[in-house]
Amino acid sequence: MTLFLYEVPMAYFSESLDALPGLAHTFGNVSSRTPATLFCCAQVHGAKVIEVGDGDESGIIAGDAIFTRTTRPIGIVTADCLPILIGSKKDKFVAAIHGGWQGLAAGVIENSFLALRLAGVSLDHLQIAIGPAIQACCYEVGKALVDRIELTHGHLWLGRQAPWSTTRAESVPIVGSCRAPVSHGEAWLDLTLYCFYLLEASGVKHEQIQTAGLCTYCSGPEWGSYRRRTHRSEAKTYQYSWIRLEDY
């Protein structure tokens, strides 16, 4: 399940997406550049899926999942949530999903893959990459949030490791980094694992998913983190993760 993406200054790239011909992508940090015609939704932490054309205006249409058959770049803005980029070995399309806990619980993954099926996309040929996001080492949550997730999707991990724990996960030590302080010590949420279970339930195989495993909170200030911003005095910053089909 977990394959690390490779890094260059200011960005991460998925090896599985890079292997797809006619496709470009970037999981960019706060310093990376974005394409001039990049389309992003007005993200609302919901489950709405949009098919984008060349003429749609960026930042206006509310939604949290995008796909397109055009060569226009599409992207997701995050500051701890999961940026999910999708390409295909067969079909000429790309997709981008904003995966915060609210969107995951509301059904953004289920809705996205239903939309792709209805659009005639073959799930067997997909390659999915989940970029840098807050990890369980720094994502402390309350019992009420865990109960809501369990009520909605707990059947997906019945008898397996839940995507949350009452024990804090370790993180990879990084020089100059600092993990989030503990507030109430009730639970820590693993957004990536939560998303993995949802992808699996939507018909995606383990080998089709690649994850970064990099925590936006404790991996350094070059990664924008909403939660870190609430704990320290920092400027507001974001990641822009984008994907596009090249001319064909």
Describe the secondary-structure layout.
Layout lengths: L5 E3 L2 E3 L1 H4 L4 E6 L20 E3 L13 E4 L5 E5 L3 E7 L5 E6 L1 H6 L1 H11 L7 E5 L9 E2 L1 H11 L10 E2 L21 E3 L1 H11 L7 E3 L14 H6 L7 E7 L3
Q: What attributes does this structure have?
A:
single chain; 248 residues; alpha+beta; CNF1/YfiH-like putative cysteine hydrolases; 6-stranded mixed β-sheet; 5-stranded antiparallel β-sheet
Structure description:
The chain has six helices and 14 strands. By secondary structure, the protein is of the alpha+beta class. It has a domain at about 5-135 and about 205-245: CNF1/YfiH-like putative cysteine hydrolases, CATH 3.60.140. The chain has a six-stranded mixed β-sheet. Strands 1-2-3-14-6 form a five-stranded antiparallel β-sheet. The longest helix has 11 residues, at about 110-120. The two termini are about 30 Å apart. The mean pLDDT is about 90.
Strand content: 15-25%
The chain-level mean pLDDT equals 91
Helix content: 10-25%
Strand order of the largest sheet: 4-5-8-7-9-13
**Low confidence ranges:** none
What would you say the CATH architecture of the domain at 6-133 and 206-245 is? 4-Layer Sandwich
Shape: globular
Termini distance? 31 Å
Judged by helices, strands and strand pairing, the structural class is alpha+beta
Q: Enter the CATH topology name of the domain at 6-133 and 206-245.
A: CNF1/YfiH-like putative cysteine hydrolases
In DSSP terms, counting alpha (H) and pi (I) runs of 4 or more, how many helices? 6
According to DSSP, the number of beta strands is 14
Q: What can be said about the biggest beta sheet?
A: 6 strands, mixed
CATH-defined superfamily of the domain at 6-133 and 206-245: CNF1/YfiH-like putative cysteine hydrolases
Rounded Rg: 17 Å
Order of helices and strands: EEHEEEEEEHHEEHEEHEHE
CATH class placement of the domain at 6-133 and 206-245: Alpha Beta
